[in-house]
Write a structure and sequence with these properties.
This protein is an alpha/beta fold. It is built from 13 helices and 14 strands. The strands form 4 sheets. It has a 7-stranded mixed β-sheet with strand order 1-9-8-5-4-2-3, sandwiched between helices. It has a 3-stranded antiparallel β-sheet with strand order 12-13-14. Strands 6-7 form a two-stranded antiparallel ribbon. A hairpin with a 5-residue loop joins strand 6 and strand 7. The site of pyridoxal-5'-phosphate has 15 residues, from helix 4 and helix 5.
Length: about 375
């Protein structure tokens, strides 16, 4: 039994003809950059997400950087980010010379702890970047309230949560990445909607921001060779757009397959007191980019042994993430004496992500869990 963390091959095999045809069409048209399919995909994704504008770009990291540039943030402006996240969120803050304010996360959702945000805010704080980690939205209702109170921009990092739906107390709903001022996502192959290389997108309901974002993505120009602002070269190429156009109609079924697999893991693991299955809050759906368990008690102190044990039986697992931002060598100086990151500091030792993708078989899941329980 061949088990993979992410099985890109079988996902491709299922829609091979659609994908191959789409790629060939682009090659025949030879419009490799800014071809018709790029625009078509942006419109299709905007329709899917019920958001006014989608601007595609080169990758999910660029997407966050471009969002911050479009908001006009200047060197020295402070940006709030969670310390338990993928490095991209922190990296762009560093690259733009912004000042990061790291915040601990909620132990259940792994997303930024809304109770610890206000204490970090100063008159120089300009934005907050909630990360919808592992496929579930951060507490956007509270984040929007804090943002309103302190005049902060909200940039959602929805790289792991495309298709997750957030429900507000008044019953209104919105998709991850379409709630704050700007949202960003990634089409890295292993993401829930992945292309066959790098790709990303930026979402906004603001016409003004959309126009700025579009310019920044393309060297700060609206008219070719007339550069009105400093931009970057970050574009989704036409081949990737055509692949994404073919895959988008299947995203709901991919999400449903991930959710079904997550439910089956929950059921198989429910009787083990040392394993905490992913928490699902009642205001966001979970699209399970990762199925991440927390190990406690005796299991908790033996995570790496468990990982090895599973590996020997052909079961890959991953630790997302082995270090928080403030523990990384590159970002060590972001740590302040007064910071308390006890939750994140514990999580890096407790978490273990199990194989998760849209073609996971129940027999594979049973084998995975049997081996965890045997250990
Ligand atoms: C993958 C990811 C990114 C970056 O996406 P790339 O396309 O790889 O640049 C940013 N933030 C989070 C949380 C991610 O998981």
């Amino acid at each position: 039994m061949k088990i993979q963390m992410v099985d890109l091959r079988s996902q491709y095999e299922k829609i091979k003809t659609e994908i191959d045809t789409a790629i060939l069409e682009v090659i025949q048209s030879s419009a490799f950059i800014k071809g018709q399919k790029v625009n078509e995909f942006e419109i299709a994704l905007a329709t899917f997400l019920n958001v006014k504008h989608v601007i595609s770009c080169g990758n999910g990291t660029d997407a966050i950087q471009i969002a911050l540039m479009a908001l006009g943030l200047k060197a020295g402006d402070e940006v709030i980010i969670p310390t338990f996240t993928y490095v991209a969120t922190a990296e762009v803050v560093a690259l733009l010379g912004l000042k990061p304010l790291l915040v601990d996360v909620n132990p259940d959702t792994f997303c930024i702890d809304i109770c610890q945000i206000e204490a970090k805010i100063s008159p120089n704080t300009k934005a907050i970047i909630p990360v919808h980690l592992f496929g579930q939205c951060a507490n956007m209702e509270e984040i929007l309230l804090i943002a309103k109170k302190y005049y902060l921009f909200v940039v959602e990092d929805a790289a792991q949560a495309i298709g997750a739906q957030y429900t507000f107390k008044n019953g209104s709903t919105a998709f991850a990445g379409c709630i704050g001022d700007i949202g960003t996502t990634s089409f890295f192959p292993s993401k829930n909607l992945g292309c066959f290389g790098d790709g990303g997108a930026i979402m906004t309901n603001s016409d003004e921001l959309a126009e700025k974002i579009r310019m920044i993505c393309n060297h700060g120009q609206k008219v070719q060779y007339y550069h009105d602002c400093v931009g970057v070269n970050s574009r989704l190429d036409t081949i990737q757009a055509s692949i994404l156009l073919a895959k988008l109609p299947h995203l709901n079924s991919y999400t449903a397959a991930r959710q079904k697999a997550a439910n089956y893991y929950n059921e198989l693991l429910k009787d083990n007191g040392d394993i905490i299955c992913p928490f699902i809050g009642n205001n966001s759906t979970h699209v399970f980019h990762q199925y991440t368990i927390k190990l406690t008690g005796k299991l908790g102190s033996n995570r790496n042994l468990l990982k090895e044990f599973l590996k020997e039986r052909g079961i890959p697992t991953m630790v997302y993430y082995p270090l928080c931002v403030h523990q990384q060598r590159a970002y060590k100086n972001w740590y302040n004496e007064t910071d308390n990151f006890s939750i994140s500091n514990n999580l890096v030792n407790q978490v273990l992500s199990l194989p998760m993708h849209s073609n996971l078989l129940e027999t594979q899941q049973k084998y995975i869990v049997d081996n965890i329980l045997e250990f």
